[in-house]
Amino acid sequence: MHSPAKISPKFMNKKSSNVVWHNATVTRERRQQKNKHKGGLFWFTGFSGSGKSTLAHAVEESLFQKGYNTYVLDGDNVRHGLCADLGFSDSDRKENIRRISQMSNLFVQAGVIVLTAFISPFRIDRQNARKIAGKDFHEIFCDCSLDICESRDVKGLYKKARAGEIPFFTGIDSPYEAPEHAELVTNTGSDLEQSIEQVYKYIQEQVKCK
Question: Could you state, in order of their start, the residue ranges of all structural domains in the chain?
Answer without folding.
Answer: 39-146+177-206
